[in-house]
Specification:
By secondary structure, the protein is mainly alpha-helical. The chain is 61% helix and 4% strand. It has a domain at 29-88: 434 Repressor (Amino-terminal Domain), CATH 1.10.260. The longest helix has 23 residues, at 3-25. The chain is elongated and about 50 Å long.
Length: 95
Amino acid sequence: MTNAQKLIIMKLRLNRNLKNEWSEHMAIEKITLPAARKMANLTQKGLADACGVSESTVCNWEKGRTEPSVSQAKRIGEVCGIHYDDIIFLPSVTV
């Protein structure tokens, strides 16, 4: 194994440990899809490309016109770095 490969593995382990430590100490609130996307520094186009859908599809998800499938929601979570269950896929909750 090269030194560069060892360094990459060390960085991955450190990131994983930091994420685990963060999640143990911080309660994550649910956030909207646009907020999750923006926290990941993604445009609608960037999220669409990463999820294999059109930009208008992401726009429709964010406006609550349509909802992503479970597999799409999981992919959104992966791309945004948050568990998909912590993302609110509707723009507002009505009672």
